[in-house]
Amino acid sequence: MDTTAARMHEAEQRISDIEEKLMENNEAEKKRETKAKEDDLRIREISDPLKRNNIRIIGVPEEEEREIGVKGLHEQIIVENFPNLGKDTDIKIQEAQRSPIRFNKNRPSTRHIIVKFTKYSSKERIMKVRILKAAREKKTVTYKESPVGLSADFSAETLQVRKEWQDIFNVLNQKNMQPRILYPARLSFKIEGEIKSFPDKQKLKEFVTTKPALQEILRGTL
């Protein structure tokens, strides 16, 4: 009996040790995830303001900017799509480059062009807003009659966060809840006559628990 009891005690102790180790591992994993999120946030806070005076052009064929220059390419897109903006688009471009810089022949799509304006005064800021707003309203922007995209430029971390909102955005849009992705990556929408905004999915989850109807709408997306 004493031997059996000793073995049972030893087995229970081993199980307890394993469970304790698992708890420690879980806590360590949570800390790593929290630190990774904090690091991403710090990168976004530093990087995004540096990119605020940039415009990202998507879908222009490789080497096209070498033929007419970046300014000529930018002007042609504006004239082709937004002629009403006229001469107000005469803003100075500091530099432009493909992203990523190195071309990969196996890459299925063209690299984006990042256009950086010389300064970010009220004139440049207003014009950038007008260009991006006009692009959203037009929905289909073209270069030499081929579809291209215009968007604000963000860090890779912020782009990922904005992308993660997409499924929720689409569901809310289908329900006419006027969703928007605010700078740099906040989701806002209208509910019960009020505009609510959320910096991340965790905050949205906490809010959803207080709104059964919204919880049903977003079922499967959170």
Automatic annotation (TrEMBL):
Q: Which domain of life is it from?
A: Eukaryota
What spans are recorded as compositionally biased (Basic and acidic residues)?
7-40
Annotated family: Belongs to the transposase 22 family.
Q: By what name is this protein known?
A: L1 transposable element RRM domain-containing protein
Q: Which residues form the L1 transposable element RRM domain?
A: 52-153
User: According to the UniProt record, where is the region Disordered?
Assistant: 1-40
- Domain L1 transposable element dsRBD-like as annotated: residue spans: 156-219
* One Pfam family matching this protein: Tnp_22_dsRBD
Q: Which residues form a coiled coil?
A: none
